[in-house]
Amino acid sequence: MAFDPSIGVPGKPWGDAERDKWRALQTPQRSYADDVLSRMDGLDERFERVTYGRIEYAGESYDLHAFRSRDWDPALPTALVTGGVHGYETSGVMGALAFLEQSAAAYAGKVNLLVAPCVSPWAYERINRWNYDAIDPNRNFRADGPAREATALIELVRATSRDYLLHIDLHETTDSDETEFRPALSARDGKPFEPGTIPDGFYLVADSEDPQLDFQQAVISAVEQVTHIAPADEKGEIIGSPIIGPGIIEYPLTQLALCASITNAQFKTTTEVYPDSPRVTPEDCNRAQVAAVCAALDFALANSVRFIQPG
């Protein structure tokens, strides 16, 4: 466990001293270079690699990499796939890489792809939700925000295209959300911790401003061929939000400054895989992410009202 509940004073937000104590607990547990960069090296012949920034924390540096279609065609729509916004959510990273390795070639000539597999490499190595500054990037996707992981991605996205068809952001909901990261959030902000329930299964988070329910349902239908879908609890909710369809909830993406808000895409969704279920393996989780990306692309390409596909 990388959070010590004795850090800070209950009811009082953290200051510099508390953040320093938290940082001292965040030691690398896996290697971004070995796990992620090594697989990226195998993609360079098929895709154009874009190094879109460098994160430097306490003498350590991490280059941020994305891949885009090598034969970029301005006449085609653009789709964005992001993973590893929360570094501990492993299948988001591995699923994005697996999509590039296994499935992306099928979309050549149909859509321009921009894929950022590991948005938060420092947190990936430490299996953490936050960055070095104890900031959650996925509540700070705004141009003037405090998380460089988020602002660097925003800059890349805006420099790459002005118009997006799709953005799918790959995430996980884990048991450690309840045992570690939500208690840490409450301690950091000086607020009481209110226990919640972790759903067993895959679910999606739509944009409450434009949920595109048919699109979300198409993704759920594809993923349930790979892994089980999270049921609603006795209140008809998943993680405290009412369901709007089987395995589907909604958030105000822009209001919360979530990653899936950073484009003008007609179709937006956030996946949530549950890797701690006794019914799945890590490979099942990765395959679920790939299935979600492919289903999202297929539906978006078939149902766009903004882009006309070539005949």
Automatic annotation (TrEMBL):
User: Sorted alphabetically, which keywords does the UniProt record give?
Assistant: Hydrolase, Metal-binding, Zinc
Question: What's a Gene Ontology MF term here?
Answer: zinc ion binding
Q: Where is the Peptidase M14 domain?
A: 28-311
Segments spanning the bilayer are: none
Entry cofactors: Zn(2+)
Pfam families given in the database record: AstE_AspA_cat
Task: Offer one example of a GO biological process linked to this entry.
Answer: proteolysis
Task: Kindly indicate whether the keyword Zinc belongs to this entry.
Answer: yes
The record, for SUPFAM superfamilies, names: Zn-dependent exopeptidases
What family does this chain come from, according to its entry? Belongs to the peptidase M14 family.
UniProt-recorded name of the protein: Peptidase M14 domain-containing protein
Organism whose genome encodes this protein:
Hyphomonas jannaschiana VP2
